[in-house]
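A.,

Following up on our hallway conversation. Structure tokens first:
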């Protein structure tokens, strides 16, 4: 919806006085279908999907900071944060014990180290794309920062459809992020005065958030006694 508005705004700016799109602009529409697991599906809806154009023009409309991803109750909040390229995101720890936020996503990797309740550290995201955010203490803590270079991104509506309007003709790369399955990326040709319609099928997979720790090793089970004492800060006592 946000993207639709940005597209309409762009088209309006380029053809003042006209409610319609300029004849030399085109659009992309799509219908997303989610194929859920038959047992124990974790999908809550199309909020678990983000569709975006990697290389559309930046005509404004990008979100403004401050941006924040909080750690509380061993969870990141929000679990999905969309930020413009070059944005800084703070990671406050609002739990009663330490977390070690990190990412190994190429181009946007970082390691904030272990820090305690009430502290916050910031990260600047330079490379567009999906950045996986983890905690080196708690494997169940998973979030994503999606770094965008333009405002052509959206969650599909409740019926699974989306639209990007007011696009200059050309070749674009449409990316689809899905919290419970593989990301997709495809080329889309946009022609002036025409609508390019897409169908996108997403398949839910089991254990999509399995990952390694910050040095590439499997996590020691969270419930193991030593690890638990360490993260609660009891080991020092
Ligand atoms: Cu943690």
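Then the amino acids I'd put at each of the 237 positions:
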């Amino acid at each position: 919806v946000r993207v639709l508005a940005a597209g309409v705004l762009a088209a309006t700016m380029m053809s003042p006085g006209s409610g319609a799109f300029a004849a030399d602009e085109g659009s992309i529409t799509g219908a997303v279908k989610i194929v859920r697991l038959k047992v124990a599906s974790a999908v809550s809806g199309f909020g678990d999907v983000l569709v975006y154009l990697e290389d559309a023009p930046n005509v404004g409309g990008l979100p403004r900071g401050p941006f924040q991803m909080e750690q509380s109750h061993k969870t990141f909040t929000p679990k999905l944060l969309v930020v413009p390229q070059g944005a800084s995101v703070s990671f406050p720890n609002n739990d009663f014990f330490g977390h070690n936020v990190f990412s190994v996503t190429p181009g946007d990797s970082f390691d904030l180290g272990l820090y305690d309740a009430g502290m916050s550290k910031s990260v600047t995201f330079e490379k567009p794309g999906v950045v996986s955010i983890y905690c080196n203490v708690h494997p169940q803590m998973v979030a994503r920062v999606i770094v965008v270079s333009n405002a052509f991104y959206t969650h599909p509506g409740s019926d699974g459809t989306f639209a990007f309007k007011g696009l200059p003709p050309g070749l674009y790369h449409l990316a689809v992020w899905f919290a419970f399955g593989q990301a997709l990326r495809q080329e889309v040709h946009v022609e002036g005065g025409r609508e390019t319609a897409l169908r996108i099928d997403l398949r839910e997979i089991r254990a999509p958030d399995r990952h390694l720790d910050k040095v590439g090793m499997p996590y020691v089970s969270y419930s193991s006694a030593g690890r638990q004492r360490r993260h609660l800060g009891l080991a020092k006592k």
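The mean pLDDT is 88. Curious whether your intuition agrees with the design.

B.
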